[in-house]
């Protein structure tokens, strides 16, 4: 099962516009990713089930509240390197999350064939995943979807979660179609949150209008 949801919040689109601006500085860009990571985390939390929780306040009064059931069994997987600040925002929401890191890169020298890049995975460090867990994959730019398809292969090797989320800033129709097929192939329940879906991927594999090379803009080229 695959679903995609864009974030319908003025503040998120205000920050996205700052990120798109070629004149935004490295610090502004990185801080923008942290802000959007927190918003994506809030959106994902909104999708989760809650249960009743009773606590006693310092005034000795018992009061009914709620807790998000999966708050303590969430795993965040960061796709290096641009997603690092995005994860910093996500972790503000999922404060008890276990974390994994995957380094993957497109083999750009071989070019893009039919909106597909060969992906080189050089490092995978993941906690084990149980059927009680929810996995959130943090990746800023989901252009052709080649990287994320490969990341999903790696993530499911560590055990099956009950639900998978993707937290991203921009994606494209090409990537959405690819991820839908990948979710079917793997038999996983996958929901992608993006701040926006841009219309195109150019011949070099960049999202258009996009925001350029997110890794370089966040950390320097
Ligand atoms: O959907 P795809 O076409 O596979 O492209 C998406 C990938 O490209 C970007 O990483 P990038 O190669 O720019 O690496 P970096 O973050 O390390 O700079 C992005 O963060 C994704 O991981
Ligand atoms: O537009 C794009 C596509 C992939 N990676 C980026 O950083 N930007």
Automatic annotation (TrEMBL):
Its EC number is 2.4.2.9. This is Uracil phosphoribosyltransferase. Residues 7-220 form the Phosphoribosyltransferase domain. One of its GO terms (molecular function) is uracil phosphoribosyltransferase activity. Pfam families: UPRTase. It comes from Thermosphaera aggregans (strain DSM 11486 / M11TL). SUPFAM superfamilies: PRTase-like. InterPro entries: PRTase-like, PRTase_dom. Keywords: Glycosyltransferase, Transferase. CDD domains: PRTases_typeI (cd06223).
């Amino acid at each position: 099962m695959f679903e995609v949801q864009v974030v319908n919040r003025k503040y998120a689109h205000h920050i996205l516009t700052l990120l798109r601006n070629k004149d935004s500085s490295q610090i502004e860009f990185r801080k923008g990713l942290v802000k959007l990571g927190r918003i994506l985390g809030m959106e994902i939390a909104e999708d989760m089930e809650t249960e009743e929780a009773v606590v006693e306040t310092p005034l000795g009064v018992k009061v009914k509240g709620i807790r998000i059931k999966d708050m303590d069994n969430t795993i965040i997987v960061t796709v290096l390197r641009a997603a690092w600040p995005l994860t910093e925002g996500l972790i503000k929401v999922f404060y008890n999350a276990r974390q994994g890191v995957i380094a993957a890169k497109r083999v750009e020298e071989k070019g893009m064939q039919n909106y597909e890049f060969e992906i080189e995975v050089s490092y995978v460090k993941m906690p084990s995943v149980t059927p009680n867990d929810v996995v959130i994959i943090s990746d800023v730019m989901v252009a052709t979807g080649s990287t994320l398809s490969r990341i999903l292969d790696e993530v499911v090797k560590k055990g099956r979660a009950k639900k998978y989320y993707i937290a991203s800033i921009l994606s494209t129709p090409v990537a959405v179609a690819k991820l839908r097929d990948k979710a079917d192939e793997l038999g996983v329940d996958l929901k992608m949150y993006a701040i926006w879906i841009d219309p195109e991927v150019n011949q070099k594999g960049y999202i258009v209008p996009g925001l350029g090379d997110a890794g370089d803009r966040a950390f320097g080229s």
